[in-house]
């Protein structure tokens, strides 16, 4: 099956000038990510993980090299084009939720749609669907201070999905969460990739979160130094949805682990 490239970097370099010294945050990084892949990135602090996401997302600009993402050569876009790219193509999920404290959960989710000029009724319908998807409908009218940390993080994920972006960039999205909510968010990202075909890059220090990636990248000293290729597994077991003879290791519908391949319920 033909694999379509979603992201490609060539000799991507980012240098910060500190006095008389040059700090290489990224040093000629070459990366290719296919559409629908979920890539997790690990590495010590200062290894360049967040810088890589910021460059791909158009938040920062490279010193040298090229970035192709979602059909655009990012480093050739002007400010207006970069703004449109970020609004229409990219969903950002950060460790700290960046929710507006004066808006409800549902209003926060609708905010990206308001920026794009989507009509009110359409925004309401889409945000209600998203809240239902993550079992947050009953918390729709609550402001961020009335939500738990896990609930706020789920709202942040839904904000990233609001404009149906092609690319999700998540920087330590589970860093402030307990183990239960970390597993929930990991499950959500898996579903977004496998069921909705989103291309996802996740920076994490959490080994359990890293394991959900189709590929795990290790960054050191501003470069990718190693990778681990994993089998792409289906995310639902046959008791929740009919599969097409795919190997399943856990079910994102009921959350139960599946240790052995199964064809029960398959047609």
Overview of the molecule:
The chain has 267 residues and is of the alpha/beta class. It has two domains: 5-229, Rossmann fold, CATH 3.40.50.300; 233-267, no CATH class. Helix content is 30%, strand content 26%. The chain is built from seven helices and ten strands. The chain has helices at 49-56, 79-89, 105-115, 120-133, 149-161, 179-196, 207-210; strands at residues 5-18, 21-34, 38-42, 64-69, 72-73, 90-94, 167-171, 199-203, 215-220, 223-229. A six-stranded mixed sheet has the order 6-7-8-3-9-10, sandwiched between helices. α6 (179-196) links the parallel β7 and β8 (199-203). α3 (105-115) packs across α4 (120-133) and α3 (105-115) packs parallel to α5. The protein is globular, with a radius of gyration of 19 Å. Mean pLDDT is 83; it is low at 231-267.
Short key terms for the protein model shown above:
globular, six-stranded mixed β-sheet, 10 strands, 26% strand, disordered C terminus, 267 residues, four-stranded antiparallel β-sheet, 2 domains, alpha/beta, Rossmann fold, 7 helices
């Amino acid at each position: 099956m033909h694999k379509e490239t979603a992201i490609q970097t060539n000799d991507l370099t980012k240098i910060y000038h500190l006095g008389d010294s040059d700090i290489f945050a990224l040093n000629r990084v070459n990366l290719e990510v296919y559409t629908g892949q979920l890539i997790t990135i690990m590495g010590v602090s200062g290894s360049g993980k967040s810088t890589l996401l910021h460059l791909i997302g158009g938040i920062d600009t490279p010193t040298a090299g090229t970035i192709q993402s979602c059909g655009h050569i990012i480093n050739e876009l002007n400010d207006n084009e970069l703004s449109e790219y970020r609004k229409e193509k990219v969903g950002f999920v950060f460790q700290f939720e960046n929710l507006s404290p004066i808006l409800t959960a549902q209003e926060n989710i609708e905010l990206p749609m308001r920026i794009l000029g989507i009509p009110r009724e359409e925004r309401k319908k889409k945000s209600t669907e998203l809240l239902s998807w993550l079992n947050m409908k009953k918390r729709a009218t609550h402001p961020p201070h009335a939500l738990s940390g896990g609930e706020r993080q789920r709202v942040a994920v839904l904000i990233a999905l609001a404009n149906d972006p092609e690319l999700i960039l998540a920087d330590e999205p589970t860093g402030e969460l307990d183990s239960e909510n970390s597993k929930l968010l990991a499950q959500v990202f898996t579903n977004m990739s496998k069921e909705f075909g989103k291309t996802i890059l996740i920076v994490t220090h959490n080994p359990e979160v890293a394991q959900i990636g189709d590929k795990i990248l290790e960054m050191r000293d501003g470069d990718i130094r190693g990778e681990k290729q994993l089998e792409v597994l289906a995310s639902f077991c046959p008791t929740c949805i009919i599969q097409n003879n795919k190997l399943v290791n856990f079910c994102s519908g009921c959350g139960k682990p599946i240790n052995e391949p199964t064809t029960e319920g398959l047609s």
